[in-house]
Each structure stands twice: as structure tokens, then as C-alpha cells.
Design goal:
alpha/beta; Rossmann fold; 2 domains; four-stranded mixed sheet; disordered C terminus
Amino acid sequence: MAGGIDTGQLQDLGRILRDVRGNRSRAILAIRVAGSRLAKPKGRLAATLGGTVRVPFRSFEAEFKLSEGEIAPYAQMLHDLDSGVIPVGPDLERWTVVDCGANVGLFSLFMGRANRIIAIEPNPSTNKRLSRNFERNGLNGTVIEAAVSNLDGRVKMDFSAGPSVLAQIGSKGTDIRCLSLDTIFEEQDVAAVDLLKLDVEGHELEALKGCAKALGRQAIKQIVAEHNNDSSLLTTLDCHLVKFGFQRTATGSVNARYELGAQGTKDPPTATSA
């Protein structure tokens, strides 16, 4: 490192940009990002960059704060798209998508052709980048600054303990507004959700309990939920969602896909205890 510049990270970013602009395959891009120093949080960048960079991907442009590891989920996103864990159907233009735990909005940007996108992110600093990414790409939707759980109120989240992509609800930290998904759906006049993405760092079950009304009236059609290779959490999600008519239809090492009224996968879970 020289003059405060993490030259390794900058070199990795350059390689990724060249791959993106050269229309390299998703597999190559995923491997490049996953193996790069950009995937490691808390790396330092030049002060002239302000710690943030704007990356021109194929169909959108996104702003990241590399020291918070915000570009790292890109590789997982590509893998989940190719493996069918994240669905992108031909009727995406008619979908309502809810991105819960949106961070800077990678999932929302991948779903940018959707009719409506609601992105929910509790970290005030990250939420600003999320909002700018929505505006920069002209996404039709709403950005909400809140944590998601089973009840409305206030919670503590410690954003200083690690990268922003890993912040959890706990007993200390910043006081944050907390909303249930049922409250958000009511406030945003959402009658039906075609795809709900849940990435709330182990709080997925509580988030699902907070949309019991929507689940009960079968207003949610598909769910992509993070289990992060935790077989116990995956089983818990299975047992909770089957009561509402969902079956798990695709399973990755990090996320699982559930579909309303679908026939469940007969393959055993790929996750192992964390």
C-alpha cells in the first residue's frame, strides 16, 4: 500500500471492469469477484475516491463503498441467477419486487425491469447509496430506511462492528426504525408481491412472521431467503413456509427459493450446519 491507496483492490477493480465491459460470462465474473480483495471488507481506498466507486455493469451502474464489502454479493447474485435460485421470468415487467435487506441495491438493480420495486435498508449511510443507485438507474420504486421484523417499533443495530452487509439487530448500536412487512405493504398500498427477497442476517423467520397477513391471503408468490449454509435455519424456513402453501424449489449454498403452490424439490438440502 502506498500513499493510503490499496493498489491490490484497485487492480482487482480494474480487472472486473474490463470483464464487465468485455461482456465476459457470469461464471468468470463471479469467480473474479469472489476471489478478489474487493470481497474482503475494510480494505482502504484512495482518499480521492472518497471510499466509494461507481461501477458500470452491463445493464446498470452502481455505487459501492468498497471498504464495507458492498461489491462482494455481486458474485453470489450471478451464481444464484444462473442456478435458478433467483427467478427472472419473461413477465418480469409486470412484477412487484420487494428487496428486504437491500444494502446498496444489487438485487433491485438486477430486477430493474420490474414494474415496481420496494427496497428496504436500515443502515442510514448505506441507504443513501441505495437511493442514489435507484435514481441513477431510473428504477420505478421506493426506498425505505428501516429494519424489518415481526413488530413495528425501534431496534438497535451496530453498524460499526463489521461490514454493512453483515449488520444485525442486537442490544446495542444505532437506534433504527423497525417495521413489519405487513405494515410496509399497507403503507405502500401493495396488494400482491411477485418476489420477496429476504437477506436480514439470521432474522428471516421474524421477518416472515411480520408478513403473516400477506402470506395468509397468498399475496406473496415467490420468496428468495438467505440461509447462509445453516441447515437449521433452512429447515425452520421450510417448516414455516409450508404452512402457507410454499415449497422450496431451488437451494444454493447461501439462498433458497420458495414458490407458492409449487411442487417442492426432492433433492436433500445442500446446506450444512454453520
